[in-house]
Design brief:
alpha+beta; elongated; five-stranded antiparallel β-sheet; 9 strands
Amino acid sequence: MFLLSSSTSSITPEQAEQTISLFKQIMDNVLSPKVIIPIITLVAGIVAIKIIMKLFAKALAKSRIDISLHTFLKSLLRISLYVVLLMTAASMIGIPITSLVTVLGALGLAVSLAVKDSLSNLAGGFLVLFTKPFSVGDFVETEGVSGTVKAVNLFYTRLNTIDNKRIFIPNGQLSNAKIINYSAEPTRMLDRVFSIGYEDNMDQAKQIITDIILRSDYALLDPEPLVRVKDHSESSIDILVRVWVQSEHYFDLDYYLHEEIKRAFDKRGIHIPYQQLDVYLHEAKDTPDTQRKEK
């Protein structure tokens, strides 16, 4: 039994020679210039792309190109460089570039049919980036949401709401949506209505509102603020207030007017009415008919 096991596990000279020959073939193929040079090219190319991207990012930061385009341009350059690098390495291995382009074209067609929604978002990203309905840092309202634009990418635009929630809107929807940009203009008009009771002094209320506007640090006096009676509603006299303000101080002025006008009205005894319905009951007079019925 021992002799049989020993003879079976021993390696013959022919087998050893075949193993060494196979190992040499593998090493020759692995260490051949056709394999080593493309690998070196890939490694060197990846390092070069990282360096190029850093230099490109610094150049963008110093340029006058809108910051909304920075992310898009960096993504486009990175993808282009990697495609060129892969095609170069493939040509070194011996893969014909024309055949590779044909295969990539067919693959791209199949992928485009599978991800047509993503391609719609990509096309929308191009439209948003180059038509520039807004820039990074603008406060916008669209698709039923509002927030500050934080990033415009190829497929999505990211907003941060006032309470700091992130909202991602597909660019395909955004390119066809109505967009309200509150930061596009340096100034905005604040339009508000303040109501007083019919028994209150209208001229006094108008003067109080005007004085509060003039004392404000946010209200602009050119164009001149407007304080006029707008309407005689069912329960109140409505006073229209229109005043211009720097866009970044819009909400500051809005809060200031509501707080100060309420304090001043309370101090002067001017009432801010609420909707109410007055019901008057009249006592019915006795008629001959009702007297007969009672009898």
